[in-house]
Specification:
It contains eight helices and eight strands; from the N terminus they run H-E-E-E-E-E-H-H-H-E-E-E-H-H-H-H. It has 251 residues and is an alpha+beta fold. The protein folds into two domains: 2-85, Nucleic acid-binding proteins (OB fold (Dihydrolipoamide Acetyltransferase, E2P), Beta Barrel), CATH 2.40.50; 93-249, Recombination protein O, C-terminal domain (de novo design (two linked rop proteins)), CATH 1.20.1440.120. A five-stranded mixed beta barrel has the order 1-2-3-5-4. Strands 7-6-8 form a three-stranded antiparallel β-sheet, with no helix packed on it. Bound molecules: zinc ion (ZN). Zinc ion (ZN) binds at residues 160, 162-163, 165, 183-184, 186-187.
Length: 251
Amino acid sequence: MRLETQKMNRHLSTEGIVLRKTDFNEADRIVTVLTRDHGKIDCIAKGARRIKSKFCGRLELFCHIKLTGFQGRDLVTLDEVNLITPFPQGQSLEQHRVLFTLAESTHKLIHAHQHIDGAYPLLVETLEALRETTKHDALLYAYLIRLLTLTGFLPSWNHCALCDATFHASLPIFVRLGDAHAVCGNCKTPADRLLNAGIPQWISHMQRVPMAESLKVASAEGQRNEVWNWLKEVLQNILTYPLKTEEFLVG
Ligand SMILES: [Zn+2]
């Protein structure tokens, strides 16, 4: 009870990225924001849909904002919002696809009020990289692999999940069906699938290095498809349903 009282009516001042927006009441808007200091929070912006609202243009998807507000029982009532970086205009269709998948997967993998160390800087770094790179799919996969690792769904891929043996580039490595675990040849079961050479090392590399480093790795289309198919399986297994953006993303 004491904690609950402390949580309520607390003044918040932080920065964040808008992941989701929903219309509420006649003129209000509810936005989900991944913040630097308080994890993922739901906020209400009163009157945000009125033409002369002070929130106008500042609560669109992927806006990087500075915000102040008051934490109520479930929602933060926004007081002031300032733009750090607006959602960039003129993005390609490919960049849009990546953005929507980033937003949906981040929203689904992080619970309300959950603060995951490193998740916010990762999203900021990824959005910045998206403006510069043409390797959109590699960026998305690197983001998902890092986020799954930070949220604890994906164990380190430099050793076997069962016997702890360190992986070497020359050893065959298997992935457990519908699972995020990699196992060695001694621990595999007949249902486990052999990964093509280079894939486990690529995944392990993406788990450890900054986004800019991940994007330096050259990859063949076949490798990227294999990683994407595996990621879709892993996400579907965790979320128990496919991402909405999935069909949209890969035709
Ligand atoms: Zn093993």
